[in-house]
Design goal:
This protein has a seven-stranded antiparallel β-sheet, with no helix packed on it. 0% of the residues lie in helices and 42% in strands. By secondary structure, the chain is mainly beta. The protein has one domain (7-285): Jelly Rolls. β8 (85-91) and β9 form a beta hairpin.
Length: 287
């Protein structure tokens, strides 16, 4: 249709050059609430390919105002359960160390100290993203010479690390789904998946709404090109259709009718992350 009432909700994610120092992202996407219809979140996504310390200029840090969720996943186009790297993250004021070898979420309640983060092995580049449940980053960096005054049994904060357990859905998509009660009470439920097939996600289903804000992030799996999606996807807002073939975030304010995505063509399996800003799934089908 000629009308473009909802085009502003379909946002290409600009890729910028990352950092040359340390093991930080070589390519990076960062989007704030002002770019997301003022939905009170900001998120980043990066491509990582080096070993070493991530933030060479600082030690731990906190986000004093907002909860944060980190996600780590690999670039293997056939497996959502493959990370392709090994890294160590420190959690809490005690800097309790945890080694991560599999795709996972790390949940960081507001004010909770976390990092340093150190990549110890790389077999293949991997992706890391975060979402902060607030409109800005709001970060307090700690000095690099900070020394914890006490230790733990090494398991005090294990509950904050959630493996991305994968199952196959009928469309040959590898999928993980976590609700608020599995996310330490965060005001969020989310899904992450790897899509390998063309076609509609929910054949026969029409438009639907949610009583909460929603972000749908579509990202490629190319190990060297964060700006490559590898598919053409159609999203509908009622009768208004929009098609994209680059990494894109769909911003769906609460109550906005939208259709399930339709994958029109695919060159390489792509990833998706869906963040819903409420602890439990609720949906009303319009037609």
């Amino acid at each position: 249709m000629a009308e473009n009432k909802y085009g502003h909700l379909v946002k290409k994610m600009p890729v910028q050059k990352g950092m040359d120092e340390g093991a930080n992202a070589r390519e990076l996407i960062w989007i704030y609430a002002k770019d997301l219809e003022n939905i009170p979140v900001n998120f980043a996504m990066g491509r990582y390919e080096e070993t070493g310390l991530w933030h060479t200029w600082a030690g731990s840090h906190t986000h004093p105002k907002y909860d944060e969720s980190l996600i780590f996943f690999g670039h293997d186009p056939d497996r959502l359960d493959y990370l392709g790297a090994e890294f160590e993250i420190s959690l809490g004021a005690e800097q309790e160390k945890h080694v991560i070898k599999k795709p996972c979420l790390v949940l960081l309640p507001k004010g909770f100290p976390h990092c340093p983060l150190y990549t110890t092995r790389i077999d293949s580049s991997f992706a890391h993203g975060h979402i902060i449940l607030g409109p800005d980053e709001s970060v307090d960096w700690w000095p690099t010479d900070y020394k914890p005054t006490k230790s733990t049994d090494g398991k005090k904060y294990s509950h904050l690390i959630k493996p991305l357990k994968v199952h196959k859905d009928p469309k040959n998509t590898e999928l993980t789904w976590l609700t608020g009660d599995q996310l330490e009470g965060f005001n969020m439920h989310m899904a992450a998946g790897l899509c390998t097939e063309t076609g509609a996600w929910y054949p026969g289903k029409g438009a639907h709404t949610h009583p909460y804000d929603k972000l749908m992030i579509f990202i490629g799996t190319h190990p060297k090109k964060l700006g490559y999606l590898g598919a053409e996807i159609e999203i509908g807002f009622c009768e208004e259709k929009h098609t994209f073939n680059l990494p894109t975030v769909l911003t769906v304010p609460k109550g906005t009718p939208h259709l399930p995505p339709v994958v029109k063509s695919i060159e390489r399996p792509f990833g998706f992350i869906i963040y819903n800003l409420a602890p439990q799934h609720e949906v009303s089908w319009v037609d």
